[in-house]
Please model this.
Amino acid sequence: MGLRIQMLGTGGAFAKRYFNNNALLYTEHQTLLIDCGVTAPTSLYQLGKTWADIDAVLITHIHADHVGGLEEFAFQMKYIYQQRPVLYISEQLVQPLWEHTLKGGLGQDGIERLEDAFEVRLLREGQVTRIDDSLQVEIIQTPHIEGKKSYSLYLNGEIFYSADMKFQPALLQELVRERGCRRIYHEVQLTGEGFVHTTLDELLSLPPAIRSQISLMHYGDEMEQFQGKTAEMEFLRQHEIYDL
Ligand SMILES: Nc1ccn([C@@H]2O[C@@H]3COP(=O)(O)O[C@H]3[C@H]2O)c(=O)n1
Ligand SMILES: [Zn+2]
Ligand SMILES: [Zn+2]
Model:
């Protein structure tokens, strides 16, 4: 069986009808959690899963809807399951994640660095990292917030999973036309100006051949009103399992 994906949530940062945009990626051998936001603990619970069902977590960037659940993950793994979970992360995010997000809550006797809470495995741009026999990941830095690094994912050289990002049509076209991309999971902002995200209108400006590869995620509570208005692009549904 190939890769499968189940979104823990498909909502944007302020969505209340949808959990944070975090994904469970099922490989042939393990379960990888892509981002671990504030709502990840509740969403996992609703799926009947525990933290022990997660083999590793990968972080795209440091916003609460993507990292806000890491403190509970680390504490439960240490004190309930007696394990140090694997964390895949850009080498550029290690210091900010610890110093600016986790240290205040996680820091205590025996946990003085990110490496004390997690088995840290560094990801580097331009380098393909083998997760297991069935999954390889390359991080691609994509613009989101000035001064805050954010990394989209290229999985197995054929699936693009966007981090929060501003519209990057040239990157999407290059991936599809020159790098064998056949599937795109893309964040979308349905209303208002993009500023730090990609708007639906921007995605609609792409050629149909690219749009037909796109599934939409990280959307707002108004998603249902946009059914039928997204051309070839479909909204991902949280908790449904999709073959990749
Ligand atoms: N310049 C900015 C910066 C942030 N934001 C909002 O803050 C959210 C943080 O999480 P996110 O998922 O990246 O979405 C961001 C915007 O909604 C925004 O709307 N404009
Ligand atoms: Zn977000
Ligand atoms: Zn963000």
